Amino acid sequence: MIATMNKRNLEWLAESVKERYSYNFTWLGRPIIQYPQDILAMQELIWRVRPDLIIETGVAHGGSLVLYASMLELIGGPGEVLGVDIEIRPHNRSAIESHSMAKRIRLVEGSSVSDSIVSEVRARAAGRRTMVVLDSMHTHAHVARELAAYSPLVKQGSYVVVFDTVIEDLPAHSYPERPWDRGNNPKTAVWEFLQSNDRFVIDREIESKLQITVAPDGYLKCVKD
Length: 225
Fold this sequence. Notes:
The chain is of the alpha/beta class. It has one domain: Rossmann fold. Helix content is 41%, strand content 16%. It contains eight helices and nine strands. The chain has a seven-stranded mixed beta sheet, with helices on both faces. The chain has a two-stranded antiparallel sheet with strand order 1-2. β1 (26-27) and β2 form a beta hairpin. The longest helix is centred in the N-terminal third of the chain and has 17 residues, at 2-18. The radius of gyration is 17 Å and the shape is globular.
C-alpha cells in the first residue's frame, strides 16, 4: 500500500512540475514557489526549533522569507531571517523591504558560496540558534559547497533543509533549460554530505507524513553539536 502511494505521489509530482504547480501560491501576498505540504512542514519546524536566525539561500520573490519571518513574529523575541541570493531583482527587493514583515528580514546579495558572503553570514550567525534552508542553484557541486559552508552553523535539534532533492526522482531531463538533472542535483549532494558527516540524519518522519514533498531526503536534523 505504501509503495503504491509513493509511486502515485511521484507520478503526480512529475506532472505537477510540468504545470508549474508551485507557482500557484503566495504567503502574505508574496509568491512563495513551494508546495503546500512543504510550507506546512517548515512552519512546524520553525515552531519546534524556535531559531534566532533562519538563513535561506535563494530569495526569488521573497515568499519563503516572509513565511519564516511571520512565524518568528508569532513566536516573539528577536528572531531574524537572512536571505542570500546572487541576484535580488529590484522589484522583488522593493516588495520585500516594504512588507510588514520586513523588520525581521535582511537581504544579502552575492553568491552564497563566495568567501565574502560565507564570512558575512557566519558573522551574523555567531551565538545564535540557527536554521538553514538551501534553495538556490540546484547543481550537486553548488549544494555540496553550501552544505560545507553552512551546516556548521546548525547545532543539535535544529535543521538544514535542502529543497528540490526531488530532481533525482523525476524523469531525466525534466528541467531541460537548467544545469541540473538526475545524478547532478541537491539529493546527490545530500547523499555525499551524509557519507562524511555524522552530525546530521534525514528526518524520515517528516517525509513520510508529507507524502508529497520536493525535499525527499532533504529534511536534515542535527543530532550532535
